[in-house]
Amino acid sequence: MKYKGNPWSAAEPGNRLYDNFSKGWEEWLAKHPDTEINEGPDGTPKCGAIIQNVTISALKRLILKMTHPNPVKRIQVQDVVNDRWVKQIECCVLENEAACDGGIDASARKSCRLASKSLVKKLHNHLPPVKVKAVYDFDLGDGY
Questions:
Q1: Tens of pLDDT along 44-62?
Q2: What is the pLDDT of residue 136?
């Protein structure tokens, strides 16, 4: 997500970025076999530039918990959703079409601070598309 794509082309030995990631985990787990990822000075593995370039330490810890090589120790989806870093993410919600003109300007002052810096379309809505009568010679079920 941070890099808007996969951090490596293949998660297999021989891929330089994946090898750096794996080596960081191997070295950390050798010293901390039963330790959970934590906020301490040696609380996370050094998994190459991909992880080290994540400057928000809470996000870095979360990513590492999600990518733990041991599936038993990997964080579960419900724990990700309940993570304090994830809970602080601002999200826009459009309750109904009457709430506004059909969209939310995510770059507005009262919206997410980071949205104004993103490359995504800033005016959007979360409502399903309006049903339009089909112009076909056959019926698609309920005429739409």
A1: 999 888 888 888 889 999 9
A2: 55
Whether residues 82 and 22 share a domain: the answer is yes
Q: What is the token pair recorded at 137?
A: 């010679």
* Chain segment 101-142, per-residue pLDDT in tens: 544 455 555 555 554 554 444 555 555 566 666 565 555 555
Query: What residues make up the domain containing 40?
Result: 16-87
Last residue in a domain, options 87, 104, 137: 87
Distance CA 50, CA 67 (A): 13
Assess whether 69 and 25 both reside in one domain.
Answer: yes
Residue 66 and residue 82 in one domain: yes
Q: Considering only CA atoms, which of 119, 143, 123 is closest in space to residue 133? A: 143
Contacts of 7 (CB under 8 A, 6+ apart): 17, 21, 50
Residue 126 to residue 91: CA distance in whole angstroms? 11
Q: What is the pTM of this model?
A: 0.61
- Do residues 119 and 94 share a domain? yes
**What are the angstrom distances between the C-alpha of 37 and each of 14, 63, 69, 74, 110?**
26, 10, 12, 10, 34
